[in-house]
Amino acid sequence: MKIAVCVNHVPDTATKVKIGSDGKSIDPAGVTYVVNPYDEFAIEEALKTKEQLGGEVVVISLGSDANKESIRKALAMGADSAVLLKDNNFRDSFAVGKALAAEIKNQGAEIVFFGKQSVDYDNSVTGQITAELLGYNCVTVVVDLKIDGEKVIAEREIEGGKEVVETSFPVIITAQKGLNEPRYASLKGIMAAKRKTIEEKDAEPADNFTEIIAMKKPAPKQPGKILGSDASAVPELIRLLREEAKVI
Amino acid sequence: MANKILAVLEQRDGKLKKVSFEVAKTAADIATELGATVEAVVLGNEIENLEKVGNYGVKKVFQLKNTDLQNYSTSAYTQTLSNFIDETGADIIFFGNTALGKDLAPHVAVKINAGLGMDCTHLEISGGEIIATRPVYAGKALVDIKLNGEKRVFTLRPNVFNPGEPSNESAEVEAKEIPEVNLSSKVIETKKSEGKLDVAEASIIVSGGRGMKGPEHFHLVEELADLLGAAVGASRAVVDAGWRPHSEQVGQTGKTVSPNLYIALGISGAIQHLAGMRSSKYIVAVNKDPDAPIFGVADYGITGDVFEVVPAMIEEIKKLKQG
Questions:
Q1: Beta pairing class for A33-35 and A9-11
Q2: Which of B27, B66, B123, B214 could form a disulfide with B7 if both were Cys (CB 3.0 to 4.6 A apart)?
Q3: d(Cα B124, Cα B160) in Å, to the nearest integer?
Q4: Do residues B259 and B136 both lie within one domain?
Q5: Sign of the CA dihedral with B231 first, then B236, B239, and B245 last
Q6: Contacts of B148 in chain A (CB under 8 A)
Q7: Are A226 and B109 in contact (CB < 8 Å)?
Q8: Cβ–Cβ of B309/A133 closer than 8 Å?
Q9: By three-state DSSP, how is residue A156 classified?
């Protein structure tokens, strides 16, 4: 079976965000970019699916040459091949979905893994958009996946519990933390990844619906009150929560 | 042409979720500002008290009925709701940014060819256009966005838009039978975490971090949460250590939350954690280290030992409840 995994290259979560000079994006100076954390679960699940069903895993990533670093990581973990869809400009989730859908179709992938969200723009929608464009089934925020013949059984996280969803191929699964434990790349894997070629092509053009007017930092919080250094401060704390904040 | 606004409500087990009233009120307010009409829609077979949506300014609610719509199904909900939007000609659609809304809104947006603004925390009208503010980088920054195209879909972060005091108005409810739904994906079982509130929905969250010194001490966090009717949250460090389940994790690789009250116990406040909870209305921090970054965002802080302070908080709140 052809298995695809879509991988994004994003600022590390420890990044201190500074607004760039355009006032619409972050200042990339000094920022470390990594594989989107949720995509690591997606890569692992793609590899596990290959171990179960056979076939091959293709990595698809949209962005600039810098994305190759994250693509190499996925290859080192065990993916077979990779495609970089090149575009250096801002794309909203629709425009990303359109380019990914075109490549997934081109690859003929029957199961495609995404992270449930990219930790940059935090929309949590690219998997769903891509699925809808392709007419694939889709289960999001998945913490457990079983493939049994034609049946795909996925557990997704919801408020206060989980939903068990039954669906079928072709399908897009978006991975939540907890789905698996991503493997470390072996030295052999890292060496092998260096020899694999990354196919490069221009991403399919697409229009954005979304126009970013401005990016800004949230208003700084006023310094709070330190009420004390031991349990004797508790009655005052509770009084303030009741009378000043009125939240309990 | 005047806009036609639609508020998509959400039911679980036949009851409207609280966020539905936030969505209804916001849709009604935006409709007033734009001189637009507003209606609401909900999918499900048996739903209680739908007329109550009228309390929040929406006078008409459609219920799209089918036994297979009682539980969420991505395929069935996408098809049914997209058809309804096509029939009614709604061009501005609001959802709650819940597990359901996050799953459904993008599917519907593609079907109806609409722009999509997710997890909005503020809406403003400027020159007849909706400008939406939404957090990015888990709240380390905000973007103001505008959606181009003829139709627009927005999801609203729960607990942020104030539904205000309910009025006495009732909404007219019109049920529409949906003869057939697409069940290419179907929920076959719902597993509930017994009696637990979810951090994404709670108006109060009590979170524990590494300062709790071990999973065996989280009963203190749980007891305080129980007394306050709060959800239990956790820092990434304690989730990664296996002390608490990932569903409780607050922060950049967990949940971004905006409760009325966030109580951080033994949490130092790593940048990923602060990003996920700094928009809480009130923040309380208890931590031994006076230099912990959590105090930079806390409204009230106690620089003491959680093992002394938390039991005292529990006692004080018990007294209050008895008083």
A1: antiparallel
A2: B27
A3: 14
A4: no
A5: positive
A6: 208-211
A7: no
A8: no
A9: strand
Expressed as residue numbers, the domain containing B121 is 4-177
233-272 of B, contacting A, C-beta below 8 A? 245-247, 249, 252-254, 256, 260-261, 270-272
User: With contacts defined as CB-CB under 8 Å, which chain A residues touch B117?
Assistant: 210
> What is the rounded distance in angstroms from the CA atom of residue A245 to the CA atom of residue A225?
13
Sign of CA dihedral B49, B51, B54, B59: positive
CA distance B178 to B63: 10
Q: Specify whether the CB–CB gap between B53 and B40 falls below 8 A.
A: yes
Per-residue pLDDT of chain A (248 residues; tens, 9 = 90+): 999 999 999 999 999 999 999 999 999 999 999 999 999 999 999 999 999 999 999 999 999 999 999 999 999 999 999 999 999 999 999 999 999 999 999 999 999 999 999 999 999 999 999 999 999 999 999 999 999 999 999 999 999 899 999 999 999 999 999 999 999 999 999 999 999 999 999 999 999 999 999 999 998 888 889 999 999 999 999 999 999 999 99
Nearest to B192 by CA among A213, A30, A163, A145: A163
Yes or no: say if B302 and B283 are a contact pair by the CB < 8 Å rule.
Answer: no
Instruction: Choose the final residue of a domain: B158, B177, B196.
Output: B177
Q: 């052999």: which residue's tokens?
A: A188
Please state the pTM of the whole predicted model. 0.94
Q: Do B302 and A237 touch (CB under 8 A)?
A: yes
Please answer whether residues B303 and B284 qualify as being in contact, where contact means their C-beta atoms are separated by less than 8 angstroms.
no
Order across the sheet with B172-177: list the strands: B115-120, B152-156, B92-96, B4-8, B37-43, B60-65, B172-177
The ipTM, to two decimals, is 0.95
Residue of A nearest to B244 (CA): A178
CB atoms within 10 A of CB B110: 24
Q: How many domains does chain B have?
A: 2
Helix (H, G, I), strand (E, B) or coil at A234: helix
Domains of chain A are: 2-202 (3.40.50.620)
Strands, E assignment, chain A: 2-6, 9-11, 33-35, 56-63, 81-86, 111-115, 137-148, 151-158, 161-168, 171-175, 198-202, 210-216, 225-228
Interface probe with A: pick from B73, B104, B129, B143, most Cβ of A within 10 Å: B143
Question: Pairing state of beta strands B204-208 and B37-43?
Answer: unpaired
Here the tokens at position B10 are 């959400």
Q: Is residue B224 part of a domain?
A: yes
Residue of A nearest to B270 (CA): A14
Q: Note whether B234 and B205 are within 8 A (CB).
A: no
Question: In this complex, is the C-beta atom of B301 within 8 Å of any C-beta atom belonging to chain A?
Answer: yes
CB neighbours of B218 closer than 8 A, spacing ≥ 6? B208, B212, B232, B243, B244
Residue B218: its H or E element: helix B218-228
- The CATH number that applies at residue B213 is 3.40.50.1220
Residues 49-88 of chain A with CB under 8 A from chain B are: none
- Any A CB within 8 A of B298 CB: yes
The residues in A 85-114 lying below 8 A from B, measured between CB atoms, are: 92-94, 97
